[in-house]
Amino acid sequence: MSAEDTPELAYDISQCVHRADLVPEALALWDGTALPGLVLRRLADGSLRSALATPAQGWQATSARADGALTQLFVLEGQVRIGKSLLGPCGFAVLPGDRPLDVEVLADSEWIVIVDAPVEGTSPEPVLHADCRAIDPFVPVIEGRRLDGFERRVLWLDPRSGADTRLLKVPPRFGGVGGGNWHPVEEEIFCIEGDIQPDDTRPMKAGSFLWNPARSIHGFNERTEGGCMLLEWHDGPWDLHLA
User: Fold this and answer.
1) Structure pTM?
2) CATH fold match for the domains 3-18+134-242 and 22-132
């Protein structure tokens, strides 16, 4: 489907920021607690969608939320105990707010945190991965093209909304999928390591964050020199349409 055939598409409105440009603030992640961090994105109503959290050793909380919202947590550095599970770098958790678990930071840590809006229906069971690299990867196929050298790991798929979170390894010298493209849902991407740029004005390196709003055309000159590792998350069923 071309952009001309599809109404209400936006053009070139993606937002990219690096962690060094963000101002530290307290994050109200769970009821009755706050922890230091950097906000990556807030929703239009001001509520937190995604952030970098930097809890120190000894910080403790319970992952309860009165609104029942899910919290996703990806460990970049450090070690944390959630319930009876130990998570180190590349650990991942999905914590429903109405099924709280005890959280204790065992070593100074840095997390990517993602807050999913409450969804009607029974909340899922908590998900805990000690190391996401143990999840079997697969090679994605985009518009019939097999992206050899890529490794995609689906860390979580919400059976209620279709929202998902993925770990994506991009090989060196990847040159894009063929020009501008868009998705029907909100897409957020954090560069964990390496380099990539979706276009000539938004270079990304480790610590960079990109938000591609739903139905916005982006990725005009995507490329990477040395390859990269990305964490990607979406608020509904993801798809890619060339523009």
Assistant:
1) 0.95
2) yes
How far does Cα 194 stand from its chain's mean position? 16
Q: Cβ(163)–Cβ(118) under 8 Å?
A: no
Q: What is the pLDDT of residues 169-188, one digit of tens each?
A: 999 999 987 789 999 999 99
Rounded CA-CA distance 206/226 in Å is 12
In CATH, the architecture of 22-132 is Sandwich (2.60)
Find all residues with CB under 8 Å of 173, minimum gap 6, and list them.
223, 224, 225, 227
Amino acid code (one letter) for 69: A
Tell me: the pLDDT tens digits for 100-159? Answer: 999 999 999 999 999 998 877 788 999 999 999 999 999 999 888 899 999 999 999 998
| Domain spanning 3-18+134-242: CATH 3.20.20.140 | no
Sorted by where each begins, the domain ranges of the chain are 3-18+134-242, 22-132
Instruction: Report yes or no: 113 and 51 within 8 Å, Cβ to Cβ.
Output: yes
